[in-house]
Design a protein that fits this description.
By secondary structure, this protein is an all-alpha fold. The chain has helices at 6-28, 31-38, 42-48, 52-75, 83-97, 99-117, 125-141, 146-164. The protein is globular and about 50 Å long. The termini are far apart.
Length: 177
């Protein structure tokens, strides 16, 4: 049996955390569930990440980073006017193939909003920074047009909401797409 390095183990924790947090959210996920999914003890888990918050932030950052990368790859070679369609198609593929990405995004927003409501403004700080990188990447890919970036991301958030709520593809709420 080959032993994993600490970095490989950290990676497995992040992947497990994405699954667990996507399903149950920040407050509903125990570090025990993450440790069990990875096959490590909780003390070992806390040697890799000092807190549950650190695990959540690593998972959230990974999710947003991978989404940003999907957008960036989608526009490589796409005609300038085709960037929104290429990015939308790539994102649709991402969340269809890996629905946990969409679920985790929604959980990220809930966790940050909950922390903000409780007066913890630091919790969401690094997530806002990561989301701003997502915004900036989309903004550049869309030619630096703030209106186009806003429309693109607003439409994406509507799609996220409709999918999260489970509206079937043939429902009338999708007619504008």
């Amino acid at each position: 049996m080959v032993r994993m390095s600490a970095e490989e183990r950290r990676e497995s924790v992040i992947r497990a955390a994405i699954t667990e947090f996507a399903r149950a959210g920040y407050k509903g996920t125990s570090t025990e569930a993450i440790a069990r999914r990875v096959g490590v003890s909780q003390p070992y888990l806390f040697r890799l990440f000092p807190t549950k918050e650190a695990i959540f932030l690593a998972a959230a950052h990974r999710c947003l980073e991978e989404t940003r990368e999907v957008f960036a790859k989608a526009v490589e070679g796409a005609p300038p006017r085709g960037a929104p369609q290429a990015m939308a198609a790539a994102y649709d593929h991402l969340i269809s193939e890996d629905p946990e990405k969409l679920q985790l995004q929604m959980q990220i927003y809930v966790a940050v909003a909950s922390a903000e409501a409780a007066g913890d403004h630091e919790f969401g700080s690094s997530i806002r920074t990561a989301w701003l990188e997502l915004w900036d990447g989309a903004h550049l890919a869309l030619g630096g047009d703030a209106g186009e970036t806003t429309r693109f991301l607003a439409k994406g958030m509507l799609i996220n909401t409709l999918m999260s709520l489970g509206f079937p593809p043939d429902h009338r709420v999708w007619s504008g797409f």
